[in-house]
Amino acid sequence: MSVNEKDLHSALKTFFGFSVFKGLQEPVIKSILSGKDTFVVMPTGGGKSLCYQLPALMQEGTAIVVSPLIALMKNQVDAIRGISDHDGVAHVLNSSLNKTEIKQVKQDITDGITKLLYVAPESLTKEENVEFLRSVKISFMAVDEAHCISEWGHDFRPEYRNLKSIIERIGDNIPIIGLTATATPKVQEDILKNLNIHDAKTFKASFNRPNLYYEVRPKTKNVDADIIRFVKKYEGKSGIVYCLSRKRVEELAQTLQVNGIKAVPYHAGLDAKTRAKHQDMFLMEDVDVVVATIAFGMGIDKPDVRFVIHHDIPKSIESYYQETGRAGRDGGEGYCLAFYAYKDIEKLEKFMSGKPVAEQEIGHALLQEVVGFAETSISRRKFILHYFGEEFDSETGEGAELDDNMRYPKKQLEAQDHVVLL
Ligand code: ADP
Ligand code: MG
């Protein structure tokens, strides 16, 4: 299908109410509409969903959207239904549906009403679903969160590995669209290989977050006091403090409270009601700080988070980037402060010791990158972007001066002294 610019913009306006495309959306959508396999790498919040939703709405047939989380699928389906006259325009196909509901979904697809069908990979493998989908018109298949296909990603899902063979059974020449916010070259290679879309048209947005300031400080036994001092400077502003363990989350939240800081804990060990309450308190600004494990953050969209502190260094650059990425979404200041001690790396290594060898090897390699990042004296932004396969000029690039190494370069002499002292 070929469309002109005007049609594309009016579809954007009609369906979503937006007047301009964000970033690379327009060329991505053109690529999809022309029937090409397409690969999209954009940071979180970049607007990936619209890249497949709009062409799905504009084309004949149904687009299959594979996504790992039922909650994410439901959100998207509700949003799409909100912009259409017919609820059947988007459906989820999963094990929670009863017979009548499944019949309705199939009817809407057969009638050509359904433009977007969201499925979890495990539902897609079901024989009866494959059989049914073979019999209807499919416009394309979008694989959202495509990094789930790779063991090098942060969220490996074995079921994602079967997608290519399933899609081949559903139909010949169905275009495949892979989308991810994981920019590491290894993960990308895995995606292209597993989906067998080596010739895909690839669109990659920059991962630079020019408004974030990166600092890594040595972690001493005074780390709590360091954190308190830092947070107090930001009184009345929102921030997140990440800790590795639930126990540490509880302790630190309490320590902050005792020191007059409005803080709440958040981790998967709290019941759902408490978690929801604490999250709301943060969003509504009844508290300034959430002390949390990595359970906190997925889908949190508070634009004015002013700082993200890592009490413990994360297990990969990828996680560090995602977690710090929750600061400064509005483009304003975002201070990313990580505390680092090599013994924390050893702790993380130890956690992995029970895992399969292949997994340990990957985990070890990822951790070595974290060590490199923590101990580097070059531009931290350059280090992160290089990890994601992106060139960055640490003199002239956007945000170049915003990290501890660039602002306070370690003097050659000091560095030498340091070596001698060791
Ligand atoms: P991603 O999946 O890349 O993390 P989303 O698809 O969830 O990002 O989109 C992030 C936000 O950007 C959403 O709130 C969405 O409504 C908004 N958005 C997407 N495209 C546009 C656009 N062209 N104009 C304005 N807002 C947009
Ligand atoms: Mg998304």
UniProtKB/TrEMBL annotation:
Keyword Metal-binding: yes
Gene Ontology molecular function, alphabetical: 3'-5' DNA helicase activity; ATP binding; DNA binding; four-way junction helicase activity; hydrolase activity; metal ion binding
Keyword set includes Amino-acid biosynthesis: no
Keywords: ATP-binding, DNA-binding, Helicase, Hydrolase, Isomerase, Metal-binding, Nucleotide-binding
Stretches assigned to the Helicase ATP-binding domain: 29-201
Main EC class the enzyme belongs to: isomerase
Cofactor(s) listed: Mg(2+); Zn(2+)
Family label: Belongs to the helicase family. RecQ subfamily.
Protein name (record): ATP-dependent DNA helicase RecQ
Organism field: Bizionia myxarmorum
Lineage: Bacteria, Pseudomonadati, Bacteroidota, Flavobacteriia, Flavobacteriales
Segment of the intact protein contained: 1 to 422 of 733
